[in-house]
What we know:
Elements: E1 2-5, E2 21-29, E3 35-39, E4 46-53, E5 55-60, E6 63-68, E7 71-75, E8 81-85, E9 92-99, H1 103-109, E10 116-118, H2 123-137, H3 143-163, H4 170-178, H5 186-193, H6 197-208, H7 212-230, H8 235-241, H9 247-258, H10 262-271
Antiparallel strand pairs: 1-2, 2-9, 3-8, 4-7, 4-9, 5-6, 5-8, 7-10
Helix pairs in contact: 2-3, 5-6
Amino acid sequence: MECFYAKGTLSTDKNSNEFISVNNFGFNRCVNQNLCIKRKKGRVDYQIIYIDKGYGQFLIKDRFIKIQSGSIVILQPGAENHYEFPADSLADYYWVHFTGFGVPGILKKLQLEGNMFEVGELFEFKKTFESMAKAVAIEDFTTDSYLASCMYMLLAKIAKRVHIPDNPLRKVLICMQNENINTLSNADYARMCGLSEYHFIRTFKKRIGMTPHQYLAKITVNKAMELLSTTDLNITEIAHALGFNDNLYFSRFFKKATGRSPKNFIKEYFQT
C-alpha cells in the first residue's frame, strides 16, 4: 500500500482566518490492509474524499453505506467521522482537509452541501492534486495561496460534474464506465450526444483532457488490474471479459499502458 501526506502525519486539524485554506492532503493507493478511521467528534475542518478505485464504507446519517469508485464524500466539521476501506477493496482514494470562513458559502453556492456525490472518473481531481503536491514540494510564500485557489477550482469542477445533467457527455461517460473497450465506436457515442463524430471527439478531448480512446484505455487498464489482482481468472479469460478476442493483443495493450506484462503484474502484486 502506498501512502502520501503532503504536510506530514502530525495533526493539522484547525480553523483558518482565510477565506479558504488547505490544511493537508494525501492519498492511499492499492489498499491491501484494513483501514478504519473513527473520530467520534469529527474534526473542526472539512474533509473531501475521492474514491478512484475500489470501494469504502462510510457512516452517513447513522448508517453504513458502501460507496464505490467514482464517488465523492464530503465530511462536515463537528460531525462524527467513521469510514473503512477493507483489505479486499484494493482502493485508491485521495483526500483533502480544508477550512476557511468562506467554505460554507462556497458549498452552498455550488450545491455541494450533501455528503455523497457520484462523479464518475474524475481526472480533474487527480490532475489538480498533482499540481498541489508539486507546489508543496517547492514550498515558498505563494504555496498556501496556490493551494487555496486549487481547492476552490476543484470544488467548482466537482459541482459542474454533479449538477449539469444536460452535459452531452454525461451519458457517454457513464456508458464508457460500463462497456468494454471494443463494444461501441466513436460514431455510436457521438449519436448519444447528438453530435457529429468530429465534434464529439473534439468536445470530449476539450472537456475530459484526452481522446475517447485514451479514456476508454485508462478505464480498461484499471479494470484489468482489478481482475488480475482479485480474481482467479486466467489472462485469456480476463482478456475476453474486457472485450479482447486475442489475449496476446490484450497483453501487449496492458504492457504498453503499465510497463509490465499481465504475468509480471500478478507476480509483483503478490510479492508486495
